[in-house]
Amino acid sequence: MKLVIDTSVLIAAMLSNAVALKIIDLLCTDDSMSWSISKSIYNEYKLIINRDKFSFTMRQKQYWKDLVKSNTVMEIIDNDFHFSRDISDSKFIQLALSIHADYLLTYDKLLLGADYKIETSIVEPEVFISKYQIIEN
To answer: Residue 94: how many CA atoms within 13 Å on its side-chain side?
Structure first.
């Protein structure tokens, strides 16, 4: 199962959101799942992790950067899809389309409200976890 993780979910995990942490744990331990990123997504992750407003320690920042590096698959985007509601979110949909991702997980209301006809399910982590637990049982 291929997943794309929006920055909002990564930051939620870093801020100890239990569901977001569960998602990251699954991605790091369940071989049936892959966490896909692109160069532009990785750069956004690094930029947001380093924002002063979060007050992460250098150790926390390094831990999460290392976790992302060692548990993700770097993919190449092969389309120029533009998300008109927020151009900065285009990279997530572009990647989902390029790799035929099963899910794009986000807390971003603009992404969640998008009415684009794509095969990737764009859902909040809580929705994914509830579906995943049903599949696993």
So the answer is: 21
Start-to-end C-alpha separation, the chain: 17
User: Can you state the angle between helices 7-14 and 58-71, rounded to 10 degrees?
Assistant: 130
> Which residues, listed in sequence order, are joined to residue 122 by a DSSP beta bridge?
104
Q: Which domains does the chain carry?
A: 2-136 (3.40.50.1010)
Confirm whether pTM is higher than 0.70: yes
Residue 129 near residue 22, CB atoms below 8 Å = yes
pLDDT surpassing 80 at residue 81: no
| 83 close to 63: Cβ distance less than 8 angstroms | no
Distances in Å between the Cα of 44 and the Cα atoms of 15, 65, 132, 136 are 17, 11, 27, 32
| Residue 82: predicted pLDDT | 61
Residue 34's pLDDT band, with cuts at 50, 70 and 90, is: very high
Task: Report residue 78 CA to chain centroid gap.
Answer: 18
